[in-house]
Amino acid sequence: MAAHKWRYIEEEGVSACRGLSADEYMTEAQTEEAERQAWLKLYTYADHCALVGRFQHLQAELNLDFCRKAGIPYSRRLTGGGAIIMGSGQLGICLTSHTGRFDFNRLRELYVLFSAPIINALQELGVEAGFRSRNDLEVGGKKIAGLGIYVSPTGCLQFHTSLLLDLDVGLMLRVLNIPRQKYDDKRMIRSVEQRITTLRRELGREVPAAEMRALLKKHYAAAFGAELEQESFTGEEQARIDELAEQRYCNEDWIFQHSPQPDMNGMGLKKTAAGLLRTYIALKGETIKSVLITGDFFQGLEVFRKVESLLKWSPLERDAIEQVVHSAFAKWEESHKESLPLQASELCDAIWIAARRARAEHKFTYQGTCYYPKSEHP
């Protein structure tokens, strides 16, 4: 049987905007009829940049004052999840294809399918990794890679991963918006290291990106019966990537979306199996002016936008909120033939908590990052 043909791309030291726009270009280029079954890109970012998840509130997740002073750019991914830093010590993995090329019933099966070659590559290095239910790869109970998947309305698929070859924890603590004044640096670093690990830490040596790339190429080829054909982006493709960067990833309308309006006066926070849920609400008397749902979740954008739309200028009544939320969830599950990992009741609770806190001075709680150990937070 002939091997599936995959396109393989390597890049070093890309900018935040350029790396993400190239990933989107790779995604939009996919069709069921394409000559190559998939495209695989293994790349690093320039030291350093910060990336937030698709549905996160950027100002709550990043220390923007520090980023600006230190010249650390930031942007927003197409995939969900939490805030991360990227640089030469974090290997980006982007696989794009079309959903019609793979046999699966639930999105969860794609996470397992596409992360298996990473697990096998780590095993060859002597590192025993496994898939954790909330879209992470872990080693000995500690996270070593975060996974994300985006599927477009036309079935174009993007699988996104950040593999920790190494990590400057001190820098990460300054970039991510964590109230460090309550902790000394050594304690903060220790608490983070209880939750995450790196290849350098596991093996006691530096693992060059080139070494990891070679292993990943080998195991992706073996897992999918693929022949990887290396080909850089053409001039025409570069032009489209630059266009996407300008339209989206360097555009403040994209970067600062999911930020509360200035009249926001209540915030509800709820930890769920689907991720950390932050819900903002603005009230006028007993009327809901607006609701904004953000978080480090991976699915449900259309449901959340529907709930936000239906609750706008609606009465501030628990029963009315529950009716809107449960109806939106039921319609999503009917059309998608599967349940969201987030429960409708959990979203109702978060919205009601925000409403109860309205007109009170709000304080952000900084628990939505990929690395910060939530159990250590006050």
Let me know the number of strands: 15
Mean pLDDT across the residues is 88
The gyration radius over C-alpha positions equals 21 Å
**Residues in β-strands, percent:** 25-35%
> What helical percentage do the residues reach?
25-40%
- N-to-C SSE series? EHEEHHEEEHEEEEHHHHEHHEEEHEHH
Distance from N terminus to C terminus (CA atoms, Å) equals 58 Å
Number of domains: 2
* Largest beta sheet: strand ordering: 7-8-9-10-6-2-1-11
Low-confidence stretches: 361-366, 373-378
| Morphology call | globular
User: Would you state the CATH class of the largest domain?
Assistant: Alpha Beta
CATH homologous superfamily (4th level) name of the largest domain: Bira Bifunctional Protein, Domain 2
Biggest beta sheet summary: 8 strands, mixed
Structural class designation: alpha+beta
CATH architecture of the largest domain, please?
2-Layer Sandwich
What is the number of helical segments per DSSP (H or I, 4+ residues)?
Answer: 13
CATH topology descriptor of the largest domain: BirA Bifunctional Protein, domain 2
Plain-language structure description:
It is a single chain. This protein is α+β, with helices and mostly antiparallel strands. It has two domains: 4-255, Bira Bifunctional Protein, Domain 2 (BirA Bifunctional Protein, domain 2); 266-361, Enolase-like, domain 1, CATH 3.30.390.50. It is 37% helix and 26% strand. The chain is built from 13 helices and 15 strands. It has helices spanning 16-28, 58-61, 64-70, 107-124, 169-175, 185-193, 199-203, 209-224, 235-249, 252-255, 301-311, 318-336, 344-356; strands at 4-14, 38-45, 49-52, 74-76, 84-86, 90-98, 130-132, 136-139, 142-151, 156-164, 226-230, 266-272, 275-284, 287-295, 314-315. An eight-stranded mixed beta sheet has the order 7-8-9-10-6-2-1-11, sandwiched between helices. Strand 9 and strand 10 (156-164) form a beta hairpin. It is globular and about 60 Å long. The chain starts with a strand and ends in a 22-residue tail after the last helix. The model is unreliable at 361-366 and 373-378 (pLDDT under 50).
